[in-house]
Amino acid sequence: MILQVKDLSVSYWSREGYVDALRHASFTVFEGEILGVVGETGSGKSTIAYSVLNLLPFDSERAGEIFFKNENILSQPEKQMQKIRGSQIGLVAQEPASMFNPVLSIKYQFQEVLKEKGKIKNKSQGLDIILDSFKKVKLPEPMRILRSYPHQLSGGQLQRVALAIAISLKPTLLIADEPTSALDVTIESQIVNLLKELKESLNLTVLFITHNLDLVKVLCDRVVVLYQGRIKEVRSKDELFSAPQDDYTKNLLKAFHDLGD
């Protein structure tokens, strides 16, 4: 077991007072698996991701525990979390363009991450690491990509670069927060297949957050179903699709099947 979320509740401040985003959530992530977290917009999926990274807004309220390698992340000082983020827990976010500075080249930004995380001593180093990571995420024309600025790349290329940066730091756990939602269907399929391959070749453990049941069916080993901040069930993928237990999950799957007809 790499990650254990225990009785996690999170509330955000609004003009009307604190609003619950997550209520008494508990689940585990086992080494080498892809655990899917599925639910509607606003169900609390991204709150789980940013809780695991200990990146919740300063005015949020939280209760519960999150154990990563038997250490409670929520009690770690920020200095320690800076060492954990990226190096041990990686993140690939929903909108790839938001992860990059538009006025800096891809090469400069990749090198900055490697330097910040202690993988290289200066910016003249690291090309071998970058090119190896590009190869793993199947990015063609690597030197052109490195010379490019974010606006000169497609969404799919930027997401591959983001994934390359994440795996270059060799994290134990990778959080993929709706990494394909901004991409077209063809590129979405390529990214999902790439995640499957990386999970096998790098022995990655992945927390995959999505609203897309098609992707869950293709990619995940087990699934957490969220609704209005509460976990409805945690099942293996096969059990979830063949014999859902909760009424909400049954309705969700019925809608999914109806859309496919």
What would you note in describing this structure?
- The chain is of the alpha/beta class and 261 residues long.
- It has a domain at 3-94 and 172-260: 3-Layer(aba) Sandwich (Rossmann fold), CATH 3.40.50.300.
- It has helices spanning 45-52, 78-84, 106-116, 127-136, 142-147, 155-168, 185-202, 213-219, 237-242, 247-260; strands at 3-14, 17-29, 34-38, 61-68, 71-72, 89-92, 173-177, 205-210, 222-227, 230-236.
- Strands 6-7-8-3-9-10 form a 6-stranded mixed β-sheet, with helices on both faces.
- β9 (222-227) and β10 (230-236) form a beta hairpin.
- α4 (127-136) packs across α6.
- The mean pLDDT is 93.
SSE layout:
Elements (H helix, E strand, L loop, with lengths): L2 E12 L2 E13 L4 E5 L6 H8 L8 E8 L2 E2 L5 H7 L4 E4 L13 H11 L10 H10 L5 H6 L7 H14 L4 E5 L7 H18 L2 E6 L2 H7 L2 E6 L2 E7 H6 L4 H14 L1
Helix pairs in contact: 4-6
